[in-house]
Design goal:
Layout lengths: L1 H27 L8 H19 L9 H19 L5 H11 L4 H12 L4 H23 L9
């Protein structure tokens, strides 16, 4: 009888040990990066600067080459920062949608370069699209799990 009780207790202990191991393993397996204040600031600053640049498209493209290069550099830095973070592929996909060669912003810049200047109606329409892409990046970042400071 004692042997049966010991065997049963050993089986229960194994079950608990397996369940606890699975729980710890599942808790340790995150599928998305945690919140990063720097990444959030990069995205919000880049959004403001990009939309401000787009407003300048009513004047000739050539007058704003330095502004365009500065915004493109800012976007590259923000995307590269996010690219270096583990488990951040969703955010990288959003940056690519915005900045790729065929991305929303590049198409706008190509239209501006080709036309010289753009109408306010066209600019406002494209700004709405670009703003939504930035909002997706910003909302994804702000919705990530925030870890306690110092971890």
């Amino acid at each position: 009888m004692r042997e049966q009780v010991r065997a049963m207790n050993a089986g229960i202990c194994k079950s608990y040990a397996i369940a606890l191991s699975c729980l710890f393993l599942a808790a340790g397996c995150s599928t998305i990066a945690t919140y990063d204040q720097v990444a959030y600031e990069h995205a919000t600053n880049a959004k403001v600067d990009t939309l401000a640049l787009m407003d300048k498209a009513t004047s000739p493209y050539g007058d704003h080459i330095k502004d365009i290069e500065a915004v493109q550099l800012e976007l590259a830095k923000a995307a590269e920062y996010d690219n270096g973070r583990p488990l951040n592929h969703y955010t990288i996909e959003l940056w690519n949608t915005l900045r790729d060669q065929n991305g929303i912003l590049n198409r706008f810049l190509m239209s501006w370069k080709k036309s010289g200047s753009l109408s306010s109606v066209f600019i406002n329409d494209k700004k709405a699209h670009v703003a939504r892409e930035f909002d997706d990046i910003i909302q994804l970042e702000s919705g990530k799990i925030k870890t306690p400071q110092g971890q």
